[in-house]
């Protein structure tokens, strides 16, 4: 199994290790073994060009039977219609229903051959409306990794469509760098409320520091990462922490590809 991934981060590395352990436990019940193949040529970095290059390298590798796509950028690239998949690609990243476009049919199955992924069923608009019932605001900023915005060509169009479905304004707040640099970007933007997403490159400890600094500014926060961020100081979350269940589901998806 080739592991094609976004730029290496502690969180992504932990997720890959968790999937590896889950797959090992599942395979052990049938006396089977799976091997993860990793290397620089399978690492996409933070660009769509790198993601395509890494996926194509794994698809061309004759020793690779399946591909595990770890990270938003490589998962998004695997979903692109113009990238033909000659072998099974299993996404380890949860995709939101409002970002998948025509990737699923009415039964919720993938419409792209050889591409297997999982969805968070509810859309972001529902989450934001729920949060506004708790905290009044006229505008909310989505704190998002700058590289994710660059790698997602339809980001601005999606944001415009999201605005049309909401009775308040919403905008991206792209950030990168250290905790201090991200906090400074937040301070300059002066948001009335913040929607927190995963920022690549921040360790769990640094993420706690960032939430603490945002709290010091008196900005209410909604985390899309789940309950862990609330325990670390975020005001609210409406998305459950699905990490453990997701890793096992990814492992099961890989194992089922082997059985097909």
How would you concisely characterize the structure shown here?
This protein has helices at residues 10-28, 48-60, 72-78, 124-134, 146-151, 155-164, 179-189, 204-216, 227-231, 243-259, and strands at residues 2-6, 43-45, 67-70, 89-96, 115-120, 139-145, 169-175, 194-196, 221-223, 236-237. By secondary structure, it is of the alpha/beta class.
Overview of the structural elements:
It is a single chain. The chain has 260 residues and is an alpha/beta fold. The chain has helices spanning 10-28, 48-60, 72-78, 124-134, 146-151, 155-164, 179-189, 204-216, 227-231, 243-259, and strands spanning 2-6, 43-45, 67-70, 89-96, 115-120, 139-145, 169-175, 194-196, 221-223, 236-237. The strands form two sheets. Strands 2-1-3-4-5 form a five-stranded parallel sheet, sandwiched between helices. Strands 7-6-8-9-10 form a five-stranded parallel sheet, sandwiched between helices. Strand 9 (221-223), helix 9 (227-231) and strand 10 (236-237) form a beta-alpha-beta unit. The chain is globular, with a radius of gyration of 19 Å.
Defining traits:
single chain, five-stranded parallel β-sheet, 260 residues, 43% helix, alpha/beta
Mean pLDDT: 85
Order of helices and strands: EHEHEHEEHEHHEHEHEHEH
Output the number of helix runs: 10
Q: Using only CA atoms, what is the Rg?
A: 19 Å
Q: Percentage of helical residues?
A: 40-55%
Number of separate strands: 10
Low-confidence stretches: none
Helical/strand content category: alpha/beta
Q: Note the main sheet.
A: 5 strands, parallel
- Major sheet: order of its strands? 2-1-3-4-5
Fraction in beta strands: 15-25%
The separation of the N and C termini measures 15 Å
Q: What overall form do the CA principal axes indicate?
A: globular
């Amino acid at each position: 199994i080739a592991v094609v991934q976004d730029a290496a981060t502690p969180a992504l590395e932990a997720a890959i290790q968790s999937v590896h352990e889950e797959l090992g436990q599942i395979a052990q019940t049938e006396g089977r073994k799976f091997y993860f193949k990793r290397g620089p040529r399978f690492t996409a970095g933070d660009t769509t060009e790198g993601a395509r290059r890494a996926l194509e390298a794994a698809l061309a590798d004759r020793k690779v039977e399946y591909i595990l796509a770890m990270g938003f950028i490589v998962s998004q690239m695997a979903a692109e219609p113009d990238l033909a998949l000659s072998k099974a690609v299993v996404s380890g990243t949860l995709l939101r229903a409002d970002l998948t476009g025509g990737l699923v049919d009415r039964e919720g199955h993938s419409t792209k051959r050889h591409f297997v992924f999982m969805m968070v069923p509810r859309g972001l608009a529902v989450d934001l409306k729920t949060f506004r019932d708790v905290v009044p605001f006229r505008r909310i900023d989505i704190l998002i990794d700058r590289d994710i915005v660059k790698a997602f060509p339809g980001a601005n169009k999606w944001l415009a469509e999201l605005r049309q479905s909401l009775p308040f304004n919403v905008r991206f707040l792209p950030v990168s760098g250290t905790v201090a640099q991200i906090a400074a970007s937040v301070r300059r933007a002066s948001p009335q409320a913040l929607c927190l997403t995963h920022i690549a490159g921040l360790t769990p400890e640094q993420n706690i520091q960032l939430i603490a600094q945002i709290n010091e500014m008196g900005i209410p926060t909604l985390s899309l990462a789940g309950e862990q961020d609330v325990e670390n100081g975020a005001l609210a979350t409406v998305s459950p922490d699905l990490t453990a269940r997701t890793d096992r589901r990814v492992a099961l998806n890989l194992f089922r590809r082997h059985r097909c």
